[in-house]
Structures are given as C-alpha cells and as structure tokens.
Write a structure and sequence with these properties.
seven-stranded mixed beta sheet, 11 strands, 11% strand, two-stranded antiparallel sheet, alpha+beta
Length: 599
C-alpha cells in the first residue's frame, strides 16, 4: 500500500536556510516562543500524526467513501477517531489568537502542518481545513459575542466550519445567488435557499457545524453589491454555549464524485434557518474574501501535496521495478533487468515531480511568510508590502501549483505503468483526488483573470513591478558570481520579458477587452514558471554556499543543484510557448461564431 513520509529535511531547508524563518519569527510581535527548537519539535510531532494516523486512512476513505442516510453522513472507518486525536493534540488551535483559545503561533507554522496533514490524507484534511477559513472570517469580521460563541469552539476543534457560496444556478458568478435572509424582530435572520458543493457540510466528527453563508436581504441591491454574510449553525448554541436546538437546515444529499471520496460534498438546504449577520449588510462578499483567500492558499497546498505524494511513491517503485536494460549498458547485473529509474524517460517524470514539489513548497512557505507579516508586523509599510505580495502571489500559487500538481500526479501514475491504473497502488486515487484542486475556490481560468485583469492591469502594473523588482535585486546581487550566472542570467532575462509581455497584452486590451481573457491562462502559467525559477535560484544559492563551506549533507545539497538545473533546462523553457500563445491574440478564439460550433 502507498505510504507518506513527511519530507522534514526539505521543510527545514526551506524554512531555515532559504527563508530564514527563525529570524522572521523573532521579529514578529507575539511569536517569540516560535524558537527553532520548538518549531522542530512541532514539525516532528506533526509528521508522526500524518504518517501514523492519517496516511493509513487515505485509501480507506477512498474505498469506503461517506455513507448518507436521512440527512446524516457517516464518515469512513477511522476518520472520527483520527479527528478526536487531532483535537486532543491541540492541532486546530496552533496558529490562532490565545484570546479565543489558540496557541498564538504563526500562521506559517500552521501551513507547514497543513501540508503534512493534507499530503497524508487530503480528503480527511478538508474537515478541519474548512474550519480555518471560518475562524479567520469570524476573527476579522465577527462581533465579540459571535467570537465568544463560535470562534472559541472552532479554535478548539470542538466544532467545524464550512463556507456556503455556490448554488445550483450559479458557481463563480455570485452576483446571481438567490438565497435570501429575512430580518426578524429579535435581530436574527431566517435564511432560505439551497447551496451545493459544500465540502464537509455534514459529518459525524463533531457535534456542531458552523456554516458561513452568503445570502441576500430583502432590500439588497442587485448583483454582488447586494450580498450579506451570515453564521448559520447546524445546532443553535444554548445558554451554556453548547450545541442546543436543531436549526432548520439539512443535508439533502451528498455528491458521488471522481475523487476525495472520504470527504462529504453536500447539498445543503436552508429552510428558514436562524442566521446571524457577520459584518455590515450588503458587504458579505468583502467579508467572505477573508475566507476565500485563506482557502486559496490551502488549495495551492493541494497541488504541492499531490506532487509530493506522487513523487515519493513513484520514486520507491522506480528503484524497485525491473524492466529492460539501460541503453548505456547493464546497471543491475544480478537481476533480469535494470530498475526503471535508470531510463531517461522515467527520470524525466520523477524530476518533474520533484522540481514542482520542492519549488511549490518554497512558494507556499514564502506566501505564508507574507501572511505572518501582513497580520503581525509592527510596521504599516511592511504590512502593506506583504499584502501586496500576497495579492499578486495568491492566484499564481492557487492555479499554477494545482495545474502542475495534477501534471505531477499523472507522472506518478505513469511511472507505475499499468500498475498505476490499478487501485491497490494508490496512484490512480492520487490523480482523482488531485483533479478537484483546479476547480474549487475559483477555477484556474478564474484565477488567471484575477491575476491579469484585477491584480496586474487594474493596478497599472504596480503589483507586478514590486515583485519583479525583488527578482531584479536578487539577480543584481549575484553579478560576477560565475556559479550563479547560469541561473541569474536566464532569470533576469525572463524577468525583463515579463514586464514587456504585460505591457503588450495591456496595450492590446485597450483596443479589445477580450484580449485579457484570451491571454490570461498563459499569462498565469508564465508567471508561475518565473516565480518558481526565482525560488529555485534562491535554493541554488544556499546549496552552493553549503557545499563550498563543507557539509556532512553533500548528497542533499547536490540533489538540490541537480533538480534546479533540470528545472531551468527542461521546465522553464515552457515560458516561451506561453509567451507566444498569449501574444497570438483573441481572434483565433473568437473568429468562429458560437452558432457555428457544430459537431
């Protein structure tokens, strides 16, 4: 059976040697306890939980799925016990405010734990994962009473949370939603409507579920300007703050899905359910973005998770599976054939997975570092800088990493050959589970429109300039460094081209706004490849310095250099294709009238 082993050495490498998180934590008010020793101990315990408790349940969840009967959901064998152990270990409260029962550790540390949990068992991880966004939303926009009632229970893990946006007739276009909220004399609201695709909307892990629901007030303006946000619990809290009377909402059914079978994806029916307004009326979408941005970082993590999981398991198989002889001569004279890892085609698939997993880890941890800075920095200027970086990087991380994560999962299956298509090995599950990541929290194409249209063009390129300036300074700092030149020369050229391409697309868009949609997806992928190239160059710098200084981990650092070389030689050239396509214009997409699309 497939297994997961937390890549602690690479995690520590990115955290401490590339991003210098130890110094970062000591500069953040309230994070002084996040010492290297404490962080290391937390990561080791998180690894044990992921490897020993969650990983063995991954295939169980896929095979059993969730059972639905009369509005109730029974999760797969072992899921409930694993959740109890998760709560008992204090994991839900790790990165939350002590005022509400949290441990007060940095958000970035929580994201590292989430990587382990998610890679070990993505379907299970979604139950506590959705709670995280609910907590952030309540913390940012809830009243003191709402925080005391709901946030404390979510932080402890006693209750879980969901996000309820999508309706049968509208997905991304939330301006079309019809769920209504009628104000009551006591200050509550009666929420009526149907929401679909609600992950973890019903389950047996906790005794209450807190739904964060978008709905319209009776006098609300049309479109997205008329959306409000509500807390709608499964059970209304009683005077003691515990789950009391059942609310007027019910799970109507659960979806039969391609993957993530261990997580319940629910149709939720609200039939005059009691709800409580969060934030100002008609500003619900603004409040919900707190939740959605959290969820998008979490979804980016899924791309990394499936790339890492696929890489680990296909690497083990490639070293063991004997097929054919190496073209350059026998490598395994005692065997009937050589292990398939000797073949260049297999090496290509393994290195692609490795490059995307380790590069993706650096991107997510860098983004998590900005989450810390935006929330905790004492400097208003630093906060704004971090928020600007996050604004730019979130759609790149979410879409790019899920796209290449799916590619990596497919490579993992391919390494196994026909055995990869068989359920017992787990590789086809990895592909199926991964596929949803490009769809939820905004499809890749929606993220691309957000990046190019809203973040880049609407800021007149300012958000991009701030990031490309960082890359420029990095390349400039290594001028004259012969060892770094193969990386910095290529990176500097692409960084310059990034700005030029943006200007060209922007000029085209001034003449025809459809050019934005036509270029967006290729623009996002182009952006992702360059972003990872910068992060790989930073890893090269650290590895070269470690080898020059003398190290007992020579093999680790040499593997970093070899993987970076592979990324620059075989993956980064994909930028040329994306550049050519984005500049080809919208005409080749729009020339055929819709009525002439025939079969």
């Amino acid at each position: 059976m497939a297994e997961y082993k937390a890549p602690l050495r690479d995690m520590q490498f990115v955290l401490n040697e590339v991003l210098h998180m130890d110094a970062h934590y000591q500069q953040l008010p309230g994070c002084e306890e996040a010492t290297p020793d404490m962080v290391s101990a937390i990561l080791e315990e998180g690894a044990k939980f992921a490897e020993r408790v969650l990983s063995p349940l991954n295939q169980v969840g896929d095979q059993e799925g969730c059972q639905f009967q009369d509005g109730e959901v029974k999760t797969p064998t072992g899921f409930k016990e694993a959740y109890s152990a998760f709560v008992e270990g204090g994991w839900p409260s790790l990165a939350h405010d002590p005022e509400w029962g949290g441990q007060g550790l940095p958000e970035s540390l929580g994201i590292v734990i989430n990587e382990m949990v998610g890679t070990a068992n993505w379907a299970w991880s979604m139950y506590p994962g959705l709670s995280h966004g609910a907590m952030n939303t309540l913390d940012a926009h809830g009243t003191e009473e709402q925080k005391q009632t709901y946030l404390t229970k979510l932080v402890s893990g006693e209750w879980t949370g969901t996000m309820c946006l999508t309706e049968p007739h509208c997905g991304t276009d939330l301006g079309m939603l019809r769920t209504k909220a009628e104000p009551q004399a006591d200050g509550t609201y009666k929420v009526t409507g149907t929401k679909i695709f609600i992950s973890a909307g019903e389950h047996d892990l906790t005794d209450n579920i807190v739904h964060i629901v978008l709905a319209r007030l009776p006098d609300a303006p049309a479109g997205t300007k008329g959306i409000s946000l509500f807390i709608v619990p499964k059970f209304l809290p009683n005077a003691a703050g515990e789950a009391g009377e059942r609310n007027a909402l019910k799970c109507g059914s659960i979806e039969h899905k391609m993957g993530i079978h261990g997580n319940s994806t629910c149709v939720m029916n609200f039939d005059g359910a009691t709800g409580f307004l969060i934030g100002p009326a008609n500003k619900g979408l603004n409040c919900m973005f707190t939740f959605m941005n959290t969820a998008r970082i979490g979804t980016a993590l899924q791309g990394l998770a499936h790339a890492e999981w696929g890489f680990q398991n296909s690497l083990v198989y490639a070293k063991d599976r004997l097929q054919m002889r190496a073209l350059s001569g026998v490598k395994n004279p005692d065997g009937a054939a050589d292990p398939i890892i000797v073949h260049p085609a297999v090496r290509n698939m393994l290195l692609t997975q490795k490059a995307f997993a380790e590069g993706g880890r650096a991107l997510i941890y860098f983004a998590a570092q900005q989450v810390d800075r935006s929330a905790l920095s004492a400097s208003a200027e630093e906060k704004q800088e971090a928020e600007d970086l996050l604004s730019l990087l979130t759609p790149i991380a979410k879409a790019f990493l899920t796209e290449v994560g799916f590619e990596s999962a497919n490579h993992g299956l391919q390494v196994f050959g026909g055995h990869g298509y068989i359920a017992e090995w787990g590789m086809e599950q990895n592909v199926r589970d991964c596929r949803i990541s490009m769809l939820y929290e905004g499809t890749s194409q929606i993220q691309a429109l957000d990046l190019l249209g809203r973040k880049i063009l609407m800021s007149q390129g300012e958000l991009l300039k701030r990031f490309t300036k960082m890359i420029h300074k990095f390349c400039q700092a290594h001028e004259g460094n012969a060892a770094m030149e193969p990386y910095t020369k290529t990176l500097a050229g692409l960084n310059k081209e990034w700005g030029e391409l943006t200007l060209k697309v922007g000029m085209k868009a001034m003449q025809n706004r459809e050019e934005v949609g036509a270029a967006a997806m290729d623009y996002l992928m182009y952006s992702g490849y360059i972003t990872l190239a910068w992060l790989w160059a930073r890893q090269v710098e650290v590895a070269q310095n470690a080898l020059a200084a003398g190290t007992s981990e020579e093999a680790f650092y040499k593997a970093k250099l070899a993987t970076a070389r592979f990324y620059y030689d075989r993956l980064l050239p994909r930028t040329k294709m994306h550049a050519d396509v984005m500049l080809s214009g919208a005409d080749n997409l729009l020339a055929l009238d819709s009525e002439h699309f025939i079969f």
